[in-house]
Amino acid sequence: MHTMPGSNEIRIEMGAVIAYRLFDIAYAIDLPKVEAIWARQAKASTRARLTATPPKAMAFGVPPVALALEPIDIPLPDGPVQASVTARLYDFGAVTLALRVPVRDMAWSGFSRLTNDIDAAVGTEGEAPIWRRLLAGVRATVAEALIRPTSQAIEEDFLAAVVFAFDTPLTATELLQRADLVPLLSGEQRPLSEASRTELLRQRFSYYTDDLTVLTWDRAFVCEPRGETDVLEVLEVANAQLLEMRYYDELLDAELPRMYDLVEGARRLRPLFAARRTANLARRFYALVAEVTELTERVDNALQVTEDVYLARIYAAALELFRVRPVTAAVERKLAIIRDTYTALYEESSGGRAELMEFTIVVLILLELLAALTRHST
After folding, report:
1. Residue 2: what pLDDT?
2. Residues 40, 87 within the same domain
């Protein structure tokens, strides 16, 4: 059902539009040091946790540190709106910046329009300088906690439209009948085909009769009458995992051609020098594999899901929609290539050293024989 604005239009009593931008800023972040830095400025930081989910059901591997920044104004067509700002730092080197615009007593059509206006102002289409200014401020503040800071502009964005209360209680079924989610989730103003509408609403989830989560690859609608934010936490972590896996995928993409060139260069050397060069390359590749494997394991374990079936379903759907698993598989394939190369180099290096040792022994034996013959002749 495509509901048009009118006197029967539902109203949001309390909600929010949240724009996320995620950046990779370091190899790792020392979170206790971040907390200490923030405390020195007489500001409070918090460790993120799932509010409604028992720790044994789903929990952060290492909870990120959340920092409350100064609010900012976002310029929109109907005038500027104020947004609260938070930065969340993950131990595996990612930071999430979130702009949260509160919504109160707003008609559904206005809520949908506000969502799209915010996306146009700060989303991928707008490329607003807001994000760069906020990121620069965070980097400068926590600089001493960054372990091997990165300069590559790897980033992800996501938009969430959240409703905590309507003016009248609605079930998820009634909400889908009375509110057109498609313009909000697609950002499109022109009517979509039925096939497109069906596909857009395919990934939807409810646990109780009155909650609803609908996911797309870059947006989500969340109706949570109990005010819980666990779904938003899960979606943020899934985006952070995508960000980091993309970073390592690009890192290995750049490393593989260099690896082939180095191996070829080492094999062109004379055997006497090739063994040492090959051994050094083997150690380098082993260090790279160990480093990437350690960090990707940390990323994989960022959120541990055990017993909460509802959040687990949303988390799995987010990983699928955001293409985290294909990117992870690509990273693993490239790591396998480097591991195989390391093994071949190690064996080649060991063989080269054995040949050199045999050659040295033969030379020593010949020298000994020569010395014996010389003594005998005299």
Report:
1. 47
2. yes
Is the confidence at residue 129, as pLDDT, over 60? yes
For the segment 147-162, the average pLDDT, to the nearest whole number, is 89
Give residue 4's pLDDT band: very low, low, confident or very high (50, 70, 90): very low
Task: Say how many domains are in the chain.
Answer: 2
Q: Which of 238, 221, 16 is nearest to 118 (CA)?
A: 16
Q: Which residue has the higher pLDDT, 83 or 367?
A: 83
What SS3 class is residue 66?
strand
Tell me which residue of 125, 31, 128 sits closest to 87, measured CA to CA. 31
Are both 78 and 145 inside the same structural domain?
yes
* Angstrom distance (rounded) from CA 33 to CA 299: 20
Is the same domain home to 54 and 168? yes
For residue 149, what are its two tokens? 């800071």
Q: Look up the pTM and report it.
A: 0.83
Please name the residue that has the structure tokens 């293409």. Answer: 323
- If we measure between CA atoms, which residue out of 141, 159, 136, 24 comes closest to residue 83? 159
- Of 196, 228, 260, the one marking the end of a domain is 228
Residues 252 and 224 in one domain: no
Q: Same domain, yes or no, for 223 and 261?
A: no
Distance between CA atoms of residues 316 and 42, nearest Å: 39
Q: Domain for residue 64, yes or no?
A: yes
> Interior CA angle at 62 toward 57 and 65, to 5°?
115
Average pLDDT over residues 266-277: 54
Q: Which structural domain range is residue 76 located in?
A: 11-228
Q: Which long-range contacts (CB under 8 A, 24 or more apart) does 177-182 make?
A: 177/1, 177/3, 178/1, 178/3, 178/8, 178/10, 178/108, 179/3, 179/10, 179/108, 180/1, 180/2, 180/3, 180/4, 180/108, 180/112, 181/214, 181/221, 182/2
Query: End of a domain among 210, 228, 246?
Result: 228
Residue 6 domain flag: no
Same domain, 161 and 65: yes
Secondary structure of residue 274 in the 3-state scheme: helix
CA atoms of 168 and 13, how far apart (whole Å): 9
